[in-house]
Structure formats: structure tokens, C-alpha cells
Design goal:
The complex is a heterotetramer of chains A (254), B (52), C (224) and D (203).
Chain A lengths: L1 H15 L1 H33 L13 H28 L2 H33 L7 H22 L3 H33 L14 H33 L4 H8 L4
Helix pairs in contact in A: 2-7, 3-4, 3-6, 3-7, 4-5, 4-6, 4-7, 5-6
Chain B lengths: L1 H9 L4 H37 L1
Chain D lengths: L4 E10 L2 E11 L4 E5 L6 H9 L6 E7 L5 E2 L6 E4 L11 H6 L9 H10 L14 H10 L8 E4 L8 H16 L3 E6 L8 E4 H4 L1
Parallel strand pairs in D: 3-8, 3-9, 6-7, 7-8
Antiparallel strand pairs in D: 1-2, 1-4, 4-5
Classes of the chains: A mainly alpha (254), B mainly alpha (52), C mainly alpha (224), D alpha/beta (203).
Chain lengths: 254, 52, 224, 203
């Protein structure tokens, strides 16, 4: 057990230094792009075209293959950011601060996607664009917290200080989000006895459920790809006057 | 074959919603892919103008 | 005699209350702002008694949240500017207790005017008499939690504009808003409201140590 | 006498650029050290690192504790005065002294005597009514309240007339005789200082 722990620690320290991370990521990036495209396309085509039509909602339920994975991704990105924030604050690892900054816009955009697809899904099935459903409301609040994090980071000039400011905010966020979810769910039952809940998946037969899992996997891979690209850009921008950047990156002029 | 494709496009009347969601997905992922590339291009341009 | 934490805690409380009493705007502005926001609703919507009674809990709580946000950045920015805030972190006493003293003072200075204003506004909004006590209890707990959240917002945006701390704090204040409004609403239709107050008390119990520790970290960021 | 503080190969980078590199110095009882450097050369940052306000990157500090051995944590009472003097405008001169964390267990007449020593007549005048020079005198009065181990003062001689700067030099010598030591920052060496650290050439 001790040996494995050292191996992880060395890998983590190695990732801590931007040049090594950059070299490692340019090796891994092509593979990541390839697998992401394959699984993402597979999941979506399977869900959108080949899964059976739902007897109640007809074909419009296929939006679930975009809405549910992006909602799940929005929340798990925030958990990822809280873990990065904790690492930045406790062990002062520079790269995990940059990881946090790189993940924030991706999380915000997937949460926005979940909100938009949720409201588009509501139009044909319930006739209204916006439905004060418990899960949609907590996704909306999660989007506000993402906006607060991005806004705070952009308002502080010294980038390493800004990283530690948003890591504090993400730790506060992760502590309060379960409370927000529970109180919004409770609020939902108080005002509307839950005749419907948007994302309680209609009775999902297995062959509807499998494409959903593949889509979720595809979305996670897409997050990994976008995160790596964002982080590479962040590392280059922050260390552009360092020697290793011109030697390793500008010379090959990717 | 043709009949099947048009069914896919129309999805009994609700096709518009499903495809608009799909377009939103592509749009948002496109933005997320484009942002880092633009940043890297800016760094390249800066370093080129410096080296001249 | 080495500084021990208790007399330092009360020294900060005494000093801040003395300064707050000398600058009367710190406790007048939340009061006036609360009353202005409250009186907007009957004017804007409709002065009908039944309608206002159903609206009262939400309106009172939204006005309480916004007016406690008003005086947030005065917690640390003045002390940071004139250098007295550094003394907290130089001593070997736990500095999050000293930050808690400042938050407690901010709560006393802005929390109580809000309580007085909410009692006055319960008359304006025809709030029934039996829901007065739950409203006061829930406001006491709620404004305290808001001061704690405001401390984090003020510490993170110490040199920046006050709006930034409002944007940071408001999404996190939604559970307090929900529980507070529910407590007053259920008191109006004679139901048991103690559950909501217990939840707010629990949030406060977690918030005091947790948020004060994080506020210390947030303030130390500004010294680099 | 054992040195009160030993600093060995301390280095710090701020926002990417190196401020100072493996600094070694010692603070002995009764001696003063001046940190000289142009604006933005990291004088205040070094002061804050010594006080523990900023996390030490590389290097270590050892403080002398009352059992005459060295450990990493400071047990000695120290005084810090930054650019902003630590004076609250809404409090009177006397209240500023009594309600500050440096005046625990200090008797009333000690406060009044130190105020007279620095030449403040109206003790109950609000600090907002006084001039910058007089505010600086109030913050100097705080030095005399207790005998602190080390005084960390940020640019004590800036924006001062001659009369006030000789007052400061007098007080520094008086406190040095009692065994206190000073770490001050400035632009040019002052005559009360025994050794200097120059941050401009170190880089």
C-alpha cells in the first residue's frame, strides 16, 4: 500500500510542475480526442436515433440524452472543483488552482445547457418554457454559484491569489449545495404536490437506459478533453515568459 | 430508406425541439473548444511580434 | 500580561460597538432601507389586506436579506485600510475567534435595526399578531447567518466593489430565505414552526466555526 | 545574548518574479536592522513574512523562546506598524491606545505618560481632528506601552519633520537600551541602525 501511495504522490508532484504536465498532456491529447469523439457520437446517435420511442411523450423524450448527462456533469464538475479547491488551500499545489479555474467555465456552460434543454423539453410536454421544478431550480442556483466563482476570479488581478480566492468559495459552495438541494426539494413539495417531476425519467426500459449511460460516459470524457485543453492554455498563458514555454511550445508551434 | 430519414428529422412533429437541443449542445461544446485555442493563438502572436 | 483570547474578544466587541455608535449611519441605513423596500410592495402591487397578508413573510425576509447585505463591506475594509486588522493575525491567539467578534459586532449593529424595522413593517403588511414572535426568532437566526456569509463575501472582495460581495453571498443565502419564510408562513396559518427554526439554528451552529475559519483564510489572501 | 530571531536562506517570489533570494540575517537584542530597497522591492513583503502574515515559500525562521532554545513558532510579543498607522479615526488618542491589542494589562497612567512623552496634549481629541504628523506620534506612543521583543516598523521616518524624527531616534535608542530590537524599512540608511539588508542588489 505504501508503494502505491508514493507512486501517486510522485505522479501528483510531477503534474505539479507545468512543463512536465504540458509534455504529458500533449502525448495524451490525441488519444483523448479520439476516444471522446467515438464514445460521444456513439452515445448520442444511439440515443437520438435507435432507441425506441416513448409511448407517452413520443420522440421528444430524446432530449433526456442531452439534458440528464449535462445536469449530472454540472454537479459533478462542482464536486471536482471543490476537491481541487481543498488541495489548493491545504497543500498549496499551484496546478490544482489552475485546474479549478479551467473547470469553472466548463461547469457553467454544461449547467446552462442543462437549464436550456430542460426548458426546451418543458415546452412540448407542459406547454410552458420554464417549470419551477425542484431539480431545475437547484440547477439554476448552481449556475448562479458558477457565475459568482467566475466573476470573483476575473475581478482579482494576481492570478495565483485569484485561484486561492475561488478555492475558498468552492469549499463554501460544496458545503452549502446539499442544503440548497434539500431545501429546494422540500420547497417543491410545499407549493406543488409533485404531480410531475421533469427529470424523473419516464419508465425507462433497459434499451432506453443503456444509451443514457453511454451518453453520460461521453459527457465525462468531453469534460476531460475540454479541461485538458483549458488547462494547457491556462498554463501557457501564465508561464509565457518562462524559458520552457518558448523552448517546448513555441518552437513546435502547435 | 428516405421515409426513415424524414421520420428521423421530423420525429412526429417534435423534431424541432430535439434538434434545437442538439444544436445547443454543439454550440456550447464548440465555444468551449474555441476559447483555449483563441488564447493560445494570442500567445503565439505575442511571442512572434516579440521575436521580430 | 499575555493577551488571552477572552479579553481580546470583548475588547474588539467594545471597540467596534463604540465606533459604530459614533458613526450613526451604520445602524440607521439598514433600518431605513428595510422600511423603504417594505413600503414599495403595497404601493407597487396592491394595498389589499388579504393579498398583503399572504405576501408578508416573503417580503419581510427579502428586505431583511438585502438590508443586511447593505452594510457588509464595512466589516473588514475599514480595519484593513487603517492597519488594525493585521494585529489579529500577528498574535498567537486563534484569529478566527477574533473574526467572529467582528461578525458578532456587525450582526448586533445591523441585525437589531432590522428586527425593529420588521416589527414596524408587520403592522404595515397586516401580519397577524401570532406570527410576530416566530418572525423575530427566525430573523435573529437569519440575520446572524447572513452576517457570517457577508463576512466571507467582504473578505474575498476586500479591495473590490461591494456588488461583488453581494453576488457571492446571495446564492448561498437561499436556504436561510426558504426556512425563514416558511417559518413565518406556517405561523400565520397556526401550524408548528419550530422545525424551521431548528434547521436555521443547525445551519448557524455549523456556520459559525466553519465560515469564520474560511474568512480568516480569505483575509490572509489579501496580505500577499 | 542569544539572537532573538535567526533567518536562514529565505527566498520569496511574488506573482512570478523573484523578490529576494536566500537571505540570511539575525536579530540581536538591542540592535536595529534596516531593510533598504526601492518601492516594490519586497520590503513590506519581507516584513510580513517575518511576522507570519504571509506563508514562507523557501527558507526557515527560528525564534528564541523564553527557555532559551529555538523553535519555529514565535512566542515573543512583537509590535507591528504598517504603512497605515493602525489608528482609528473615530477614537480619541487615549482610546486608540487603550482599545488596542498591544495594550493588554497596561495601566491608565502608563497610557497617559506615553502620550505626553510623544507630545500629544489633548488626550481626548478625536484622531480624525489631528494631523498626519500627530497621528504618527500616537502610533509611536504605542511603542512605549510595553516592552516588546522585536519592533517591526514599516518606514517610520517617511513624511516626518526633523523634530519628530529626532523624537523617534531618541525613543529607539531608549528602547534599545532596554534590550528591544527594531526591524525597520526605509529608502536610505538612517543613523540609528547598526546593520542593513539591501534588497535592490540581492536579486
Amino acid at each position: 500500500m505504501n508503494k502505491m501511495w508514493n507512486y501517486i504522490k510522485d505522479w501528483f508532484i510531477e503534474m505539479g510542475s507545468p512543463p512536465l504536465f504540458f509534455k504529458w498532456s500533449s502525448k495524451v491529447l490525441p488519444w483523448l480526442i479520439f476516444t471522446t469523439i467515438i464514445i460521444f457520437a456513439l452515445g448520442l446517435t444511439w440515443g437520438l436515433f435507435y432507441s425506441p420511442t416513448d409511448y407517452k411523450q413520443g420522440d421528444v423524450y430524446r432530449i433526456i440524452y442531452i439534458h440528464v448527462p449535462s445536469a449530472i456533469l454540472g454537479q459533478s464538475i462542482f464536486m471536482f472543483m471543490a476537491v481541487c479547491g481543498f488541495i489548493t488551500m491545504v497543500w498549496r499545489v499551484k496546478i490544482s488552482g489552475m485546474l479549478l479555474k479551467a473547470a469553472a467555465p466548463i461547469g457553467a456552460s454544461f449547467t446552462l445547457l442543462a437549464l436550456l434543454t430542460g426548458s426546451i423539453w418543458g415546452k412540448p410536454t407542459w406547454g410552458t418554457w420554464w417549470v419551477w421544478d425542484a431539480r431545475l431550480t437547484s440547477t439554476l442556483i448552481l449556475f448562479f454559484i458558477y457565475a459568482a466563482i467566475i466573476g470573483l476570479h476575473s475581478s482579482i488581478d494576481d492570478k495565483s491569489k485569484a485561484d486561492r480566492a475561488i478555492s475558498i468559495l468552492s469549499i463554501v459552495g460544496i458545503a452549502i449545495i446539499p442544503i440548497i438541494k434539500k431545501s429546494v426539494d422540500w420547497w417543491q413539495t410545499l407549493h406543488q404536490p409533485s404531480t410531475f417531476s421533469l427529470t424523473s425519467a419516464p419508465s425507462m426500459t433497459p434499451d432506453m437506459y443503456q444509451p443514457l449511460l453511454v451518453c453520460v460516459l461521453g459527457f465525462y470524457l468531453m469534460f476531460a478533453l475540454l479541461l485538458t485543453m483549458n488547462l494547457r492554455a491556462e498554463v501557457i498563458v501564465r508561464e509565457k515568459n518562462k524559458s520552457w514555454v518558448s523552448k517546448q511550445y513555441l518552437s513546435e508551434d502547435k | 430508406m428516405i421515409e426513415q430519414i424524414s421520420a428521423i428529422i421530423h420525429m412526429d412533429g417534435n423534431g424541432l425541439y430535439v434538434w434545437s437541443c442538439f444544436l445547443l449542445l454543439i454550440l456550447i461544446i464548440g465555444i468551449n473548444i474555441y476559447m483555449p485555442i483563441r488564447k493560445l493563438k494570442k500567445v503565439n502572436k505575442e511571442s512572434q511580434s516579440k521575436t521580430q | 500580561m499575555k493577551s488571552n483570547i477572552y479579553n481580546w474578544f470583548f475588547l474588539i466587541l467594545r471597540r467596534d460597538l463604540l465606533i459604530a455608535s459614533r458613526r450613526s449611519s451604520t445602524y440607521i441605513t439598514p433600518l431605513i432601507f428595510f422600511l423603504i423596500v417594505i413600503s414599495f410592495f403595497p404601493i407597487a402591487l396592491s394595498p389589499d389586506q388579504e393579498f398583503l397578508r399572504s405576501l408578508a413573510p416573503g417580503v419581510i425576509w427579502i428586505a431583511a436579506l438585502l438590508s443586511s447585505l447593505l452594510a457588509i463591506e464595512t466589516i473588514f475594509s475599514e480595519d484593513f485600510r487603517d492597519g488594525t486588522l493585521d494585529e489579529f493575525f500577528i498574535s498567537n491567539d486563534p484569529s478566527f475567534v477574533l473574526v467572529f467578534a467582528k461578525v458578532l459586532c456587525h450582526w448586533l449593529v445591523t441585525g437589531f435595526p432590522i428586527l425593529i424595522a420588521s416589527i414596524i413593517s408587520s403592522l404595515i403588511l397586516y401580519l397577524p399578531f401570532n406570527s410576530l414572535m416566530p418572525m423575530i426568532c427566525s430573523l435573529i437566526l437569519g440575520t446572524f447567518f447572513m452576517s457570517l456569509l457577508g463576512a466571507i463575501g467582504a473578505a474575498l472582495s476586500l479591495g473590490k466593489s461591494a456588488i461583488l460581495s453581494a453576488i457571492i453571498v446571495l446564492p448561498f443565502s437561499i436556504p436561510t430565505l426558504l426556512m425563514g419564510t416558511a417559518a413565518v408562513a406556517s405561523a400565520i396559518d397556526y401550524q408548528d414552526y419550530s422545525g424551521f427554526l431548528l434547521i436555521m439554528g443547525a445551519m448557524l451552529a455549523i456556520g459559525i466555526p466553519g465560515l469564520c475559519l474560511l474568512t480568516v483564510e480569505a483575509i490572509l489572501l489579501n496580505y500577499e | 545574548m542569544l539572537p532573538k530571531l535567526k533567518v536562514s536562506n529565505l527566498s520569496c517570489t511574488r506573482a512570478g518574479n523573484l523578490l529576494f533570494n536566500n537571505l540570511n540575517f539575525e536579530v540581536n537584542a538591542g540592535q536595529n536592522i534596516e531593510i533598504i530597497g526601492s518601492n516594490g522591492s519586497g520590503k513590506t513583503t519581507l516584513l510580513r513574512i517575518l511576522l507570519g502574515l504571509i506563508h514562507i515559500g523557501k527558507g526557515d525562521m527560528e525564534w528564541l523562546d523564553n527557555k532559551d532554545n529555538y523553535n519555529q513558532f514565535r512566542d515573543m510579543e512583537c509590535f507591528y506598524q504598517g504603512h497605515s498607522l493602525g489608528i482609528k479615526n473615530l477614537l480619541s488618542a487615549e482610546e486608540n491606545l487603550r482599545l488596542s491589542s498591544f495594550s493588554f494589562g497596561v495601566s491608565e497612567e502608563k497610557i497617559h505618560s506615553s502620550l505626553d512623552r510623544v507630545g500629544i496634549e489633548r488626550h481626548s481629541a478625536l484622531a480624525s481632528e489631528l494631523s498626519v504628523g500627530q497621528k504618527k506620534r500616537i502610533s509611536i506612543a504605542r511603542w512605549l506601552l510595553k516592552d516588546f521583543g522585536i519592533y517591526f516598523i514599516d518606514e517610520p521616518f517617511s513624511a516626518l519633520d526633523d523634530e519628530a524624527s529626532n523624537l523617534i531616534e531618541e525613543i529607539i535608542e531608549e528602547l534599545n537600551k532596554k534590550g528591544a530590537s527594531f526591524v525597520i524599512t526605509g529608502h536610505r540608511p538612517s543613523n540609528v541602525v547598526s546593520s542593513q539588508i539591501n534588497l535592490d542588489h540581492e536579486v
